Amino acid sequence: MIGYVTVGTNDLPRSAKFYDAIAAEMGVGRMMEFESFIAWGKMDGPAGIAATKPFNGEAASVGNGVMVALQADSIEQVQRIYDIALANGGSDEGAPGARGDGFYAAYFRDPDGNKLNAFLMTGAG
What is the pLDDT of residue 64? Predict the structure, then answer.
């Protein structure tokens, strides 16, 4: 259903470092790159993520209530993604842990303040 998600950035090189590290952990790399835009994922694969300087030339800002969720393949990968995010300029929004029946997640923000999480559906109980 979703082709890709784009977040705004005011510093593309800084965002590139952050998302390059997370993408590498998830087994993907850059699939498109322009002067003001980089997208990570696999062509014809699942939804990817992109960071861009706003087209209108205004400063990028964070959407209140907006979050990008990255599907991990294990609880250990949720932890690794969270650790990678914090090591690459991200900030904590909720350490890895169970968030109710069958949902395990870690929450963090990228260097521009965009909220993300890494999650795993673990089954009920």
Answer: 85
